[in-house]
Amino acid sequence: MENVTYKANGNTLTVFLSGHIDSANAPAVEEAIAAARASGAYDALELDCEKLEYISSAGLRIILRLRKEVPALKVINVSPEVYEIFDMTGFTEMIDISKAYRVISVDGCEVIGQGANGKVYRIDRDTIVKVYLNPDSLPDIHRERELARKAFVLGVPTAIPYDVVRVGEGYGSVFELLNAKSFAKLIITEPARIDEVIKMSVDLLKKIHSTELKPGDIPDMKAVALDWAEFMKDYLPADKFEKLYSLVSALPEDNHMLHGDYHVKNVMLQEGEALLIDMDTLCMGNPIFELGSMYNAYVGYGELDKEKVEGFLGIPYDRTKHIWRESLRLYLGGADEATVNAVEDKAKVIGYTRIIRRMIRRGALETEAGRKEVEYFTGRLEELLDRVDTLTF
Q1: For residue 364, how many C-alpha atoms fall within 13 Å in the half-sphere facing its CB?
Q2: In what order do the strands lie in the sheet with 96-99?
Q3: Which structural domain range is residue 336 located in?
Q4: Considering 53, 78, 100, which residue would you say is the last residue of a domain?
Q5: Are residues 209 and 286 in the same domain?
Q6: C-alpha span between 286 and 142 (Å, rounded)
Q7: 24-48 residue pLDDT tens
Q8: Is pLDDT of 99 > 90?
């Protein structure tokens, strides 16, 4: 029947409804759905209404009967017009019904941020969208929205996504950021403001790190870092591995907030206020984990090839190194060089561990150039482990 088609995906049957479903064709539609269900043994059923233009009470009764037979029935990709019918008749309170996502394009849009899970584009003067790399990212999007909401409620200024959209084959979260510029963009376009931007960045970082959460509210970074350290067991001498693992293990439990990927591309300036974006890495733990990530973003990834940092941040490497050192100095309350150097060494322990693991997991040991990079960072880490006796500061 032209109003009904279907597709099987494992144990899930998706039935696609289209056109108008009313008293004239409802019996035939119901028969077609029954035939689709009889085509196999399915545990789950969803009705895809992307092309459904109208549904009458006769069509609604079909869905009610289906729900009695399949309590976990889902109705997806519903247009605003059809969703209004479901809402007015109370169906949205009885059945899992979700609207269709607005489709947008980011072709030609400026990339203003990039992380491990996605890219952030400016769509227009007022709006940005974070496009997730994983095409099955809806759970990640809802998770990030919840993390952003928690941070906002606790007083951390962050952009809250107000819409979910389709972008190509994947999904994105849309944010309204009127006239906002990333800190990276500010440094590029107004280089004389670099130290002002660094101070704003550090002030926000301190605000984040002073925010306390309840245990279990958000992911614990120490558990993640212990996994990084455990990974190094096969790539460090036994004594160095034991030292690394004991350093991370010895860090006290800490319920203070961390952003997890803090750098000048993930902070926006809007009407004089600094706002965090890219909240999927939000976690809790000792601030040394944040500093290790920051060291990598500004310095570490560029130690052998400065283009890796310059290409990512869009800022010359000598300036990113300045951002790192001045950020660390201000974060430590204007500490002297010796203190800054000592804390930097602790940050490098975390940073190098993460870099080595990342390179190896991405196949670095399969090429001569990659092996040399791993050898370089492993050597630097071993030198640090000879003199760093605690990661606290």
Answers
A1: 18
A2: 4-9, 12-21, 44-55, 74-78, 96-99
A3: 181-387
A4: 100
A5: yes
A6: 26
A7: 999 999 999 999 999 988 999 999 9
A8: no
